[in-house]
Amino acid sequence: MTLAREAGEPGPIAESRPVQNDKASIYDLALLFLRLGATAFGGPAAHIALIEHEVVRRKRWLTREEFLDLLGATNLIPGPNSTEMAIHIGWKQARWAGLIVAGLAFILPAALIVLALAWAYVRYGSRPEVIHLLYGVKPVVIAIIVQAIWRLGSKALRRGELALIAVLGIATNGAGLNELLVLFGGGVLAILFRVAGDWRRRTEELTVPCILTIAPSTATAAGVATSAAAPVGLAPLFLFFLKVGSVLFGSGYVLIAFLRNDLVHRWGWLSDTQLLDAITVGQV
Description:
- This protein is an all-alpha fold.
- The protein has a domain at 21-109.
- Helices cover 70% and strands 0% of the residues.
């Protein structure tokens, strides 16, 4: 029998005690999310992985369970998950001040970069060398988007019902139906397919479970282009993006459909070329 433990060695009770999370100051929140906002490339999924590494593993501001709870909450509301995670973590650490500081710090670097690129686009976008540069970048951007859509589609359309919903969505949207109605209709059809499948399995007394899951994958596509020929007031811009931010679920590539339908076809604020240039800026 061991009579005594070595000095400093934790006993059984200490070993089972949960790790005490550290609390972040406003300065810590601002420093971390400024760095992440300036260096985290990729979509929200990549951002969330980096945030989890920092706040759970390195700094231990949250437990993994708390982090997953916050992530689950962000999936219930529209908008970019990674930005919502930054805001939510700021609230958990320092309430209202932390919410504001973390959110602003995370989006400020990208906003400043896009602002500089948008100014340069308006100022120098008509020069031949800039036009040729953008023409060379656009095919690469389109290839990236097609590859992302193919990757997302191969994961999301593994069942015949989901493939049918996708075909119906393409057809109805191509016929001019509003994107919100298409998204809502797709969700309703998915629910109906699942209910019908459950009912059929119950009536046939099948024992093999079948779970219909829809796992949205987000990627950030952020870009701003300004049309010098048709200036737009700040109020319409604010109201438009407020509407988009309040209803948009799913991948950032869904945003492109909203932007093209309203900004190009409905109001004529941008041309297709300017919209593609803005998407190019977002990929940069």
